[in-house]
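Example record

One chain of 50 residues, shown exactly as stored in the release files.
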Amino acid sequence: MPNNIRSVTGKTAKWCIEWYFHPEAVSRVAAMWRSWEHLRLDAATGMSVS
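Predicted C-alpha cells for this chain:
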C-alpha cells in the first residue's frame, strides 16, 4: 500500500493546519474545485446536480 493512502474512520480524521503541504489534501481540494467549475458553467443543470 502506498504511503499516501490511509484508512479514515471519521472519528479521528482532522485536517492539518498546513494542509497545502500534503499531496492528498491538495488533490482533494483540486478535485472539488474542478467539479465546482464544471458545474458552475453548465447552463443546463448548473449547481443543482449533487
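Notes: The chain is about 35% helix and 0% strand.
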